[in-house]
Write a structure and sequence with these properties.
Blueprint: H1 3-15, H2 19-24, E1 26-31, H3 36-47, E2 51-56, H4 59-69, E3 79-83, E4 86-90, H5 94-103, E5 109-112, E6 132-136, E7 142-147
Parallel strand pairs: 1-2, 4-5
Antiparallel strand pairs: 1-3, 3-4, 5-6, 6-7
Length: 148
Amino acid sequence: MNRRTALAAIAAAAALPTAASAKTGRMVVTKSPTCGCCTAWVRHMRDAGFLVEARDIGQDALYALKAQLGVRPEYSSCHTGEIDGYVIEGHVPAEEVSRLLETRPNALGLAVPGMPVGSPGMEMGARKDPYDVLLIRRDGSSAVFARK
């Protein structure tokens, strides 16, 4: 291989998306600047290979964003993610986000309402409360996507 061909191959490889970005796209997470569990959830998503941009905004603006995206109060949590046309509300495990992106259901997205102990970002030692990951349908109804 000549030098020009080798340099072109290196440049092409550098321009390719990583496996995580090719699989998941980029996630934007909107959260309160003072919420530690939101920061821990962003870390969980990054550790799982997601490309995450965290945006800090005030609580009123966050509530307005949730309403604009169609997240009803009963599905609400402390932060809201957006990825590939889906909303990710609250402490949803990375593996469930991956499954959502693989299966691509006709839905608004996923939610873990509230802040269940033991969910990603809400770890408290060995304690883990059971919780459901909900698939939020476009009509506002939901179904259990996963039980944790």
